[in-house]
Every structure is written in C-alpha cells, then in structure tokens.
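Morning!

This is the sequence you dropped in the shared folder:
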Amino acid sequence: MSAGRRLLAIYNPTSGGGHFRRDVPLIVESLATLGFAVDETPTERAGHATELAARAVADGVDVICAIGGDGTVNEVVNGMAGSEAALAVIPTGTVNVLALELGIPLDPPDACRLAALGHVIEVDLGLAGDRYFALMAGAGVDAAVVSSLNPTFKKALREAAFAIQGLAKYLTGDSPLIRVETEEECIDGYFVVLGNAANYGGNFGVTPLADMRDGLLDVCVLTDKSFFEFAGYWLAALLSAPMQHSKVRYFRTKGARLSVAPGETGEVLVQTDGEPAGRLPIDCRIVPGALRVIVP
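The structure's back. Tokens below.
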C-alpha cells in the first residue's frame, strides 16, 4: 500500500512531555522501511503544524503523518481538511483521544505499520468558527481549563489533571449562561459540548452516541450549575451516560450558534479538541467527509 507514496511526518518535540522525542528518528526510519518516501519536520510554534500540512497538500504529498498528541493532530487536520491527502496518526501525546476513537494502536511501531497497511476512510469534521475539530468543541468550564492548564501538571496527572483543574475552575469561576441555537431548538446551559466523536477524553464519554460518519454533531448541554448537578454530570460522563442526567439536554444537529445568553455578562471561552479556540459567540457546523484518515 505504501510503496512509492510520499509522506510528510510532522512531529511535536514536546508532545507527551517530550518523552517520545528520542524515538522520532526510529519512527521515521520505520516509515521509510515500510516503503514511504519520507520527509520530516518538527513544529516550532503554535499553529506551525497547520502551515506545514497545508504546504504538503499544495505540494501533492500523499500521506501526512502527525506524530504527537491530539493538539498536534488538530493542527495538522486544520491544514489538510477537504484535501485528497490521507492522515496517519502516530500517537505520542498525553491522552491520544482520536487514536482511541479510530482504533489506531497507541504503540508507535504498530501505528507505523498501520500507516502502511491500513485502509483509508472518510470521516466528518466539525467546524467552530474557522477552526476544524475532529473530536469536539466545548464552551464553558472545559475551555477555561484548557486555557489555564499547566503543562507540567498535565504531564504528571494526565486525564486526572483536567478533572482537578475543572473542579477548581468551577469553585472559583463565574459561569455566564450559554445560549445554544439550532434549527431544532433553543436552549440555555452552563456547559456545552458539541461532539463529533464518542470519546471526549480518557474515560469520559460526554457525547457517547456520536459517530464520526453520520453527518451530525451530538450536543450535550448541562442546564444547572449547582455543585451537586455539576458533580453528577461528570460522574454520568465517566459512565458514558450523561443523557440520563436530569439536568442534561442531549440531541443531534447539523449546526449550532453558541453565544452568551441575553442579560448575562462575562466571557465564555471555547476549546476544540482540547486546544483554545477563542470565545463566544461562535457558529459551529458539521462538514461531512472532510477528512481522509488511515484506520485498521
């Protein structure tokens, strides 16, 4: 499958705390041994992977390989969405949610073999403003956590870092009401996730019924901000059953506008795939079949 195909390997030297940096030459060598004509380049700053991926698409590269975590993958996706290039993922990040979602091996040698021997499918992407996301967009406490999470803390505690920081943000922050407007309905809540994938992060299933190939976004809205309901929401998410929570509205849509509800004051941040993505208001929609990706 890989013989003669051009592959650009884009890697984040600090992904997973830099633990895999020394393995990059071995990964690149493995990809070349599997028959790819490989070029490699590290990212140097935020947004650089998007630029590199867009340049590779313009240059006619067949496969763009993201070596890193979900943040690196998100940047690469934003540079290649809608193109004929195929995405290969070598997961070396903290959680690697997209790899878990698509069944991509977490062991780099196995992921390299998949890049050569797997098959290509088309999956949907979400679009929040002008930024694509493969997994989810969130507005409220999770976006506030993403914008403030200490990288060392994240490396040490992995998924638990998000939960601990989220509780701290909840206890100390002021959360304006968020309005979610779709063709189907208009609803206000304090925390909103628009999921393109079932996996949210680690063991959490905020939109467990989401499917990356159904042409829809799954919307999960928490309508109460009491501590009891907030804690119950995350417990339900841990069990991948948030739709059973009494203060949750769960539905599907092709697009939604998120804004601070009338009469409310304050800033509400947005995250996409675990990376900061601005603030409300923002328009989100699904883009069917926008990404070609190599899977088992």
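Headline: The chain has a mean pLDDT of 86.

More detail when I'm at my desk.
O.
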